[in-house]
Here is the input.
Amino acid sequence: MIDNHQRNINYLRISVTDRCNLRCVYCMPPEGVKHTPHWEILSLEEFGRIVDAASDLGIKKVRITGGEPLIRKNILDLFEHISANPKIDDISITTNGVLFADMAKDLKNAGLTRVNFSLDSLSPDNFKDITRLGKFDAVWKGIEKAIELELHPVKLNVVAVRGVNDREFGDFVRLSRELPLHVRFIELMPIGECNPWAVGNFISAEEIMQQLQEEFGTFDIETKVTGNGPAKYYRLPGAKGTIGFITQ
Ligand code: SF4
Here is the structure.
């Protein structure tokens, strides 16, 4: 499908729910947000029909997102439907990982090809503070499972927040050296005027890279990480994984 700017569009993102089992401080208030009524949300069958129609127009890659997509009831049915479509060759998910370990095998059998985890901290205490409800160990189990099942490339999305996780950036780089994980530092988005996290806590990708170069020296530029996003990737010499940046 060619858009008005002559770009070839072959990638579709589907948000299957606005609900989430976490309450990240930069995303939601502690009590959560008012949910869209059930009857205003498309059914899984309707999402399936949209993917089929989009595939006829040239869509080949589909990403399932939320909220947290794995809390959507019967979500495996949607994966099965999409993977049965021969025009779709890539089905990925963005998840907070809380439920992933237990569902990983079924997701892979239903057609999942790769996974992005949202993970802002490698410290269980800090992770709990950021997500309010999250248990780091459960998410880590999910990440290990994704590597074991070879759902490559396994990506970690890290929203960079000054004073919250900026002291951990080096730990993420060390992780990319040891494991085949692709860490993407994401600049904080100023979502909504009431989001105090957007004011004063922003760190630019440039500043993060500078901080990392001071600690690790030069990174190699990496061009082989599969994906559809705008990330630029780098690799420490000899590292199993990479780091990347997603800018606003
Ligand atoms: S896991 Fe994602 S959707 Fe859920 S609260 Fe955190 S940032 Fe928001």
Notes: The pocket of iron/sulfur cluster is lined by residues 20, 22-24, 27-28, 66-68, 96, 118 (CB under 6 Å). The longest strand covers residues 154-160. The chain has two domains: 1-151, 152-248.
